[in-house]
Amino acid sequence: MGDLFSNLALGFSVAFSVENVFFAFVGCFVGTLVGVLPGVGPIATITMLLPVTFGLDPVGAIIMLAGIYYGAQYGGSTTAILVNIPGEVTAVVTTLDGHQMAKQGRAGVALGIAALGSFFAGCVATLVVAALGTPLTRVALLFGPAEYFSLMVAGLAFAVVLARGSVLKAIAMILAGVLLSTVGTDLETGEERMTFGWLPIADGLDFAVLAMGLFGFAEVLRNLEVTEHRDVVRAPIGRIYPTLADLRASIAPVLRGSVLGSALGILPGNGAVLGPFASYTVEKKLAKDPRRFGRGAIEGVAGPEAANNAGAQTSFIPLLTLGIPPNAVMALMVGAMTIHGIVPGPLVMTRNASLFWGLVASMWIGNLMLLVINLPLIGIWVRLVKVPYRLMYPAILVFSCIGLYSVNNQPSDVLLAAGFALAGYLLLKLDFEIAPLLLGFVLGRLMEENLRRALAIARGDPAVFVQRPVSAVLLAVAALVLVVAVLPAMRRRRDEVFAG
Amino acid sequence: MKTIRSLALLALAAASLAAGGARAAYPDRPITMIVPFAAGGPTDVVARIVGEHMSRTLGQQIVVENVAGAGGTTGITRASQAAPDGYTIMMGHMGTHGAAPAVYANLKYDPTKDFAPIGLAAGTPIVIVARKDFPAKDLKEFMAYVKANSTKLNEAHAGVGSVSFTTCTLLNDLLGAKPQRVVYRGTGPALNDLVGGQVDYMCDQIVNLVPQIEAGTIKAYAVALPERSPALPNVPTTKEGGLPEFQVSAWNAIFAPKGTKPDVVKRLNEALQKALADEGTRKRLLELGADLTNTAATTPEGLAKFVQQEVTRWRGVLTKAGVKAQEAK
């Protein structure tokens, strides 16, 4: 314990130098601004700004890039709430209730709770990283392909709970998402699947393309047809900051979200994406009146946002303690560190102690910065929603297209998103929800790959999934969640049938 | 000292410009270097380190553009179709300009014909690694164990056509081993499972492995180079270990599209040579474990010959291993 404090003291002494605080500020600020542009996620931002950091000293550079990461993550939630476009996978859940709150004139409250919840979760996660980083890594290493497969199955079970309406439709959307995730080159054989020989999708569909098309563009299309009730614009702004009652309603969800997010973020197989979904599921199940969810429940923003931010931070654990990046953003951070002459690995903690602890401390500072930057900005963001549609929608479309192009520098991505926009519009009209589809898409690929890997290692014996204890427990959780989710729906269905 | 050197460089650059005569001086605007892999990977890092020094020599920024996909062939296809004016160049790679013709039947370019080679930048040697409790203490024991138990073993790789796949195909072929090949999306997750003991062995580029090897989370058996790598001085070479046929380096080389004028090629090669001769740049590359021993291929002619050899070599290895070139249609 004494070690922890002396290490943190070292960290803060590094991170609190004037220039490093400045870098943290610049990173968070730029990250927030860029994150708010729909489609420009942390990956694009960090790639663009990587050359800028060449001249800086390594610690400052990494602190700035980490700041961009948190900032962009946070900025992604801002667009999710304001215009229903999730900037990142993890912000998908925030659209569900966050955007509903915005429509009810409570955008400021949603943004405020997101900021406060994120800050709190960030503090918790920083402590988790500092105190438990190394021991937790060992736990994470217990996760092999079989465990990941079962974790993804559990994740898909959560997705059923996300649904506002029909369970059947939700399951259909999840399966559609899984199906879309199989488009592209088969990893094992190198054979192309469902690409119709079209080169741009040979590597599969991109999440940003799918999310932007199905969510963002489709939302624009839908809003265009209802010119009379411009709900977002008409609704009074209302309170900008959350009330005491809002805060009280959010405390427990934020706590639970922080724990869930921190725990899932540690898993190197990109477990962080599950955090917000798991948190939402838990909140919906615990709520006295689950029907409020999807209709602007503040718990549905507070919990997932906390989980999102906690996961963003604990996902540094595999990178810092193992040197193995758990996702694309972290892979980029490895590149950045390598260019600065620091090769992340198990020894970074002892060899580059000042970098390691400086980064840990800067996480906390970065969270504080985000709060400082974002609380005053809420007023501006909220007013942004009042911008007339004829100005706002073209702007959203243009920025989204720029963002989409910047992901892979592929013009075809923009075209694909346009196609998905039409599909998304149709789905909206038919009352299908998009969020489960996106989760199915993200988890589908991981699920398939880990399934095949686990079976390959077990030489084709499916019993491996129940023989390995962690995997068996996860599958049991998935079954439980499904039963809990589906049963009431079936009962309701019967009631409806009998009532009708 | 530094200023004197850069002044001297400037003077040199000016002189070479003057020698160019009345023609519009190349380059008069930034040059795009297409890197066919994601930012942060070994090829990207080499491109950025070398590109930074070349920018100084050329007096124009070399902007790295990452166009990843299909084992790097997406980016190279695009780069090969760019105008051959010297303003779009690319960082080709053992995969894109060596193994690709044997892996992708519908490859839209021919590595030996559709490019103007500039020069080899740096390679990253391959290291044979295994989980830390693998029952073999040196390469000889490793070879014996793999030969005896190969069907029970799991070898991890990063997908058909990737460096870890092609190089381990060669290794398995040399050992006559038929392990279960477990595929991962990238070497990061594969390495993760190797550290966690879920798989038995893999072949990967040294850059990714040094920290793990030093920390003892995985075992290294040999570096596939003629001489020991300064980044891993305690790890023997395959020659010392008794497998001299296994010599592989995942090389990275700069190419321009076919039809690029010889004087532009010359100018770019000069800038590359200068970067590779620079103390600081060398040091940064060597620290990463990069292999700068193949100096013969740092000239355009040398690279052309080298590419020819590599294409033939990998076609042989992969065809023998039963990797069919994939038809996308």
User: What's the alpha carbon Rg of chain B, rounded to whole Å?
Assistant: 20 Å
**Number of strand segments of chain B:** 9
Multimer state:
heterodimer
Averaged pLDDT of chain B: 88
State the order of secondary-structure elements of chain A, H for helix, E for strand. Answer: HHHHHHHHEEHHHHHHHHHHHHHH
Biggest interface, CB < 8 A? A-B, 54 and 53 residues
Structural write-up:
The complex is a heterodimer of chains A (500) and B (329). Chain A has 22 helices and 2 strands. In chain A, a hairpin with a 6-residue loop joins strand 1 and strand 2. Chain A has a two-stranded antiparallel sheet. Chain A is an all-alpha fold and 500 residues long. In chain A, helix 9 (207-225) packs antiparallel against helix 18. The longest helix of chain A has 35 residues, at 107-141. The relative contact order of chain A is 0.19. In chain B, helix 2 crosses helix 10. Chain B is built from 12 helices and 9 strands. With 329 residues, chain B is an alpha/beta fold. Chain B has helices at 2-19, 42-58, 73-80, 94-103, 139-149, 163-175, 187-195, 206-215, 238-241, 262-277, 279-287, 300-320, and strands at residues 31-35, 62-66, 88-93, 115-131, 154-157, 180-183, 201-205, 218-223, 249-257. In chain B, strands 1, 2, 3, 4, 7, 8 and 9 form a 7-stranded mixed sheet that branches. Chain B has a two-stranded parallel sheet with strand order 5-6. Helix content of chain B is 44%, strand content 19%. The interface between A and B is large, with 54 and 53 residues.
